[in-house]
Amino acid sequence: MTDPLLDEAGRIGEPVEILEPGAEPVNRDRVLIGIGPREPELAAAVDVTLVAEGTAKGPEFVEVADPHGEAELLRAAAKECPQAALTLVEVLRAAPADVTAGLDLESFAYSTLLGGREFARWLARRGERPLPPPSPREPVLVDREDGTLRVTLNRPERRNAYGREVRDALVEALRLALLDDSVRRVVLDGAGPSFCAGGDLDEFGTTPDLATAHFVRTRAGAGGLLHRLADRAEVRLHGSCVGAGIELPAFASRILARPGTTFRLPEVSMGLIPGAGGTVSIPRRIGRWRTLYLALSGRPLDAGTALDWGLVDAVE
């Protein structure tokens, strides 16, 4: 595809190029979706390759019942929020080796999209909402037994949404573990029906300005701390793990999921990209190609597939 990406008004036209088996990409300005079968080196050069079930393994490939039909569904999702889809692709392709640099890149991109029309449209559709009420209890519970620090997200009435109170209390607990060398193991779990249902939607769009939003995400967020604690951290997941509910756990060296747990990245449909570290943590487990598929499709991933892909380490 050689048509310009942007029209004269700067609007994105066609954000996706679908490549038939064996075809090489022509324009890397677009989301590149390959149709299998495809050689691994060709699959690695595009953003995701869709193949029939049972025909290819490896992080570059996603097995689906109907590769062409699925490609059109991904195209439709990208056309609904093309700025978010293309920004996500650019961030995933860049993939700095350094985690801190990756978190900064993700946050710069996220802040850009916070000022975009796609997120503004999502906010308008959602309508005005009051800020969430203060937590009626400690938003995060911390319990020490010998060398194990157990940290429990404790806002079950909001499905442990990763809002300001939960974030700040979680960060405080993780900093405690980093400062105390006698903490040999950190176990993170969640109270109630789900480990974490992602960012608290009632707080979206309430940051004073985009620069402040960037520094809060990167300097006051939990992702970098979990990365530094990774060798000592185990996360136990259950229920619906959305957005931050899998982005943060993916930094840990050990993730356990209960049967029936599901995982979802819905941010692109909101005009955003994963913003709790997911463009850094999740590709390190499942590759940038499957990460793109999860985020662009927005569909839930079941625990069995998550185990097969390496997003979790055990289902028990």
TrEMBL record:
SUPFAM superfamilies listed in its UniProt record: ClpP/crotonase
Q: Which Gene3D superfamilies match?
A: 2-enoyl-CoA Hydratase, Chain A, domain 1
- Lineage of producing organism: Bacteria, Bacillati, Actinomycetota, Actinomycetes, Pseudonocardiales
Q: Which Pfam families match?
A: ECH_1
This chain belongs to the protein called Enoyl-CoA hydratase/isomerase family protein
- Similarity comment: Belongs to the enoyl-CoA hydratase/isomerase family.
The lineage's top-level taxon is Bacteria
Originating organism: Amycolatopsis acididurans
